[in-house]
Records
---
Amino acid sequence: MPYWIIFLFLFAHTAAAQQTMDWQATQGDIIHVQIHADSDIQQLTALGKSWPFQKNIDGMTHGWIGVDLQQKIGNYPLQWHSEKNNYTEHLHVTKGEFRISRITVEKNMSSFDAAALKRIRADQQAIKNTYDIKLDRFPLFSKASMPVDGIESTPFGAQRYVNGKARSPHSGIDIAAPEGSPIAAPLAGKVLLVEDMFLNGTLIAIGHGKGLVSIYAHLHKSHVKLGEQVSAGQVIAEVGSTGRSTGPHLHWGMRFNHVRINPQSLLMLSDNTNKK
Ligand SMILES: [Zn+2]
């Protein structure tokens, strides 16, 4: 048999072994995807964005994708790009089951004058700016842990009504705990923001790399300074009730490439989840 026929056979065999997967996610999920590609992956794209990936010693390339809380349900292409090939898989986004939450606050915390609105917008911008800060680190996605012991009082995605008026859905989880309870960093990272804000009270943002940012709000006290490197499990703050808050709790939010993801889904990441 001529050599080229053997090579052709080998190539066809490799191509046939290349299986594409269907992936499933709920609105607000961060998911772990993986592929065994015949050449090095250069880029992973889905939902109009590029996502971080890493080649493992097992020969698999692992990637992580965030699905925004309000991403439209449907089927989307998920593409792995290598020098030689594009592998197209599918991502099925299903509807999240989000609760309705109603809170009542004092009038000066529900309707705002011009000065307050200006401050609220500046606060939001300062938080948003942290999402674009590039850090030289790769998050240990599958190792995240809960930042505080407590009871979840408002779940992720809850449609909120403040004094009867519809507001944007809850972009994090609220964990009720006594004032002063220690808050531990769920993953290692760098402190990108420490500030006293109008609605959020004392707030910390930590960057974990690759656009993964965690937010902690309504803090009694911060234990970290801007620019500080924190390790996983390090106490960064204490639970409080500063800003617009109805009692001591931690508001824990997670952003990934700007999208709002459920911190609970980060905790549930493991190599065997999310496969259809
Ligand atoms: Zn909250």
---
Amino acid sequence: MWIFGRKGPSGFSACSTAEEVTQGIDGTGRTAIVTGSSSGIGVETARVLALRGVHVVMAVRNMDAGKNVKESIIKEIPTAKIEVMELDLSSMASVRKFAKEYNSSGLPLNLLINNAGVMATPFMLSQDNIELQFATNHLGHFLLTNLLLETMKNTVRESKIEGRIVNLSSEGHRFAYREGIRFDKINDESGYKSIFAYGQSKLSNILHANELARSLKEEGVNITCQFTSSRSNCYQSSASPQLYQWELQQHAMWHCIHKYRG
Ligand SMILES: NC(=O)c1ccc[n+]([C@@H]2O[C@H](COP(=O)([O-])OP(=O)(O)OC[C@H]3O[C@@H](n4cnc5c(N)ncnc54)[C@H](OP(=O)(O)O)[C@@H]3O)[C@@H](O)[C@H]2O)c1
């Protein structure tokens, strides 16, 4: 649609692909974690970072799917430095295990892309008994970021290269509950609305990014923290721009149809 093709001051638009916006950038020597890179936008993010020479760690809950993606990236980019590690963001124990392994691996960390997400699921509780969308989309990433922050700060100090944390939010953040985040009713099944709960988790991604950016600036740490919320999230694929938007929304639609059919 024309509106997504309108270019901003950067010269790029929401229709620009990841390959286009990273053209000419050499990411050699940098290391990135991309959560949820077993499908959708995460795959394209991992692929293009690898294409630009970044060492990519795919943090995924489905190891088989992750390994298949890794193989397909290596097939296309034989020089890619890429590996797969297990991470289930809906489980705090899994997040802690991942962070412990990563922090003791000796790998630096320049970029953390908090991409994984679930959308509009029926009411469910995580392994820690927290509403699933809030647990996965926000709390898991919040804990992960906190646990990896020291490693990131060390990398920035040693490399003197700015670090970056990106939270993938959504325009859906506008459709949170009327009160915004229902801190005292996170697990209230009776008032649960799957789309509002998604919006609530995506609003949390934004508030998390803003507060972290503020506190890192105050601390004088050279790490920028930002969120993405526009449709540019879904238009990153060079190969198939519409595909990634479709997969997440298909999942949401499936649940809505089943819910309203009763
Ligand atoms: N596509 C859109 O229209 C759109 C628009 C705005 C914002 N976004 C945001 O963009 C991000 C990526 O969306 P997408 O369209 O690429 O979705 P997707 O194709 O459904 O991919 C989501 C990824 O998150 C992973 N994931 C889900 N639950 C997880 C968990 N508990 N632990 C670890 N990984 C988990 C999935 O793993 P499995 O493969 O194991 O399921 C999958 O790899 C999301 O944060 C979404 O909110 C998307």
